[in-house]
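Continuing the series of single-chain predictions for the mutant panel. This is the parent chain; the variants come on the following pages.
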Amino acid sequence: MPVAAYVGFGANLGDTRAMFARVREALSALPHTTLRAASLLYRSAPQGCDDTHPDYTNAVFALQTGLPAAELLAHLQRMEAEAGRVRAPHASGYQPRVLDLDLLLYGDAQIRTPQLVVPHPRMTQRAFVLIPLAQIAPPDLRIPGHTATLAELLARVADQPVEML
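Parent structure:
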C-alpha cells in the first residue's frame, strides 16, 4: 500500500538549481512512486561546519510510494552517487555537497536501523527542513514520535535564517 514520504534536498556545490531539477525528474521516474509536490527553493547557511562553506540550497519533495523505506533510501543514495557525491567516512564535521538527499518521513513509520533513521533525527531542529516541509505538507502533519505540531516546531526554529530563493 503506498505511503506518503518526504525527501529533503540540499546542495551547496555546483549549479544547485539544475541539481534540484535533475532530482525532481529522477524522483518522478522512480518505480511505484508519484511525485506529489516540491517546495520552493530556500537558502540557508551551513550548519555544523566552519563558515567558509558555501550556503546551501534546500527544498523538500513529497512522494507517494509503494517502495519499502530501505529501497527508497537506496534509490536516493544512488542519485547522490550519480551526481558525484563522495561520502568521506572519516571526515570530521559536515562537508560541502553536490547533493544531499534525506528520507525525512515515511508515512507514520519510526525506523531505526544502522542504515536508516526515520523520522530524520535532526529534522525538527532545522528551519531549512521545516519551512519547505510546511509549504507542501498537510497542515495536520505530525512527525512520528513528536507531540508538537508542525507550527509549534517552526516556532522553535524561528531564529534560524532561511531565505526563499
